[in-house]
Amino acid sequence: MKIERVLIYRLGSLGDTVVALPCFHQIAQAFPHAERRLLTNVPVHGKAPAAYSVLEGSGLIADSDSLRYPIGTRNFSELLALRRQIRQWRPQVLVYLTARRRWQQVARDVAFFRFCGIPRIIGAQVSQDMRFNRVDATSGIYEQEAFRLARTLHALGEIDISNAANWNLRLSPAENARAQQELLPLGNRHFFACSMGTKVPANDWGGDNWRAVLRSLAQQYPDLGLVLIGAPEERAASDLAATEWQGRCINLCGNLTPRESAAVLVRARLFLGHNSGPMHLAAAVQTRCVAVFAARDREGVWFPCGVGHKVFYHRTDCWGCGLEVCIKQRKKCLTAIQPEAVLSAVQAVLTAPSEESF
Fold this sequence. Notes:
Rossmann fold, five-stranded parallel β-sheet, alpha/beta
C-alpha cells in the first residue's frame, strides 16, 4: 500500500523537538513521498515555543495543518474534536514519538489512535526498555533522550545520532540573512552566545553567578562580543546578568524565532547557559556548550548531544526529584556549582582543538 499520509505524535517545545531531530530525519527518509503532519501540544508556558516553530520550513513536516491540542486534556469534547480532525485527514501511519511514559499511558494512547482509525502505529513503547532511558552500570549516567527516541523507531531502520546530517535544521537563506542582520552591531567580532533564562525556576543558577562569570570573561576576552538569546520575558534578567560586560553586547531575547536563533548560534564561538532549549539548539548546529544543570532530571538524559561540551551536574541525595520549584533543599545541586569552575570550563573549551561536535 502506498503511504500518502503520516501523522507524527510528538509533544513538548523547543528542547524536546530538537532532541528528536534525528528521528524526524529518519521519518522523512522512510516516507519521502508522504505528507507528514505533526500532532503536538499547545505550549503550556509563555517561554516555550511551539514544536512547529522549530520544524517549519525544514521540509521534515508539512508547512501547514499541524494538529494541536491542550496537553493533558481530559475534556471529552476536545478529544472528540481531535478525533474528528484525524479521521477527516485519514492518516495511514502514526509515528509514536513520545517522552518516557508508563505502559498504561502508552496503551491508552494506542487505543485512542486506533479509535481514530489509524491502521498502523510505529514506535509504541510497549517494553520497559523502550519506555525508559538505559543506565550505564559503571558510571550511573543515563542514556541521552535522543538515543532512546532513536531506539523506539528501530522499525524504520538504524538512526545514527553521531551523524551531523541528522541534526540539520535546514535553515533557509532568509533565516541566515536575519541572523547576519541582527549581528551587524558586533562588526566582525567573534562572540559568546548566552541564554540565562529558564522556564523552570529549579533550573535557575542565579543572576549573581552569571554576572560573576560574564564579568571575568569580559576581562579575559575583551575582543569578543556577547549575544543574549531567549524569550521576551527573559530580556530584563539577561540585561541585568550582563551589566558588567565591557565589550559589545546584543540582547536578542524575544527578537528571533527559534530557527533564527539557531542561525545566530551556529556563528557563536561557544554557548553558555542552563539546561534549556537554546542549549539544545546550539548543540544541534555544532556549537560547543558549557551548561549548568540542576539535578532535578536524571543525570545524562538531557545533556547536549555531540562532543566537546562541558556539563556541570552535581548529583545530590535528592537528584532526579523532578521539582519545578525547590524550596526545602534550596537548590543545593546548583549552589554547589561555583562561577570559577564554569569560567575554567569556558577557557578549556575555547582553547581545545576545533573539531566537528558530532
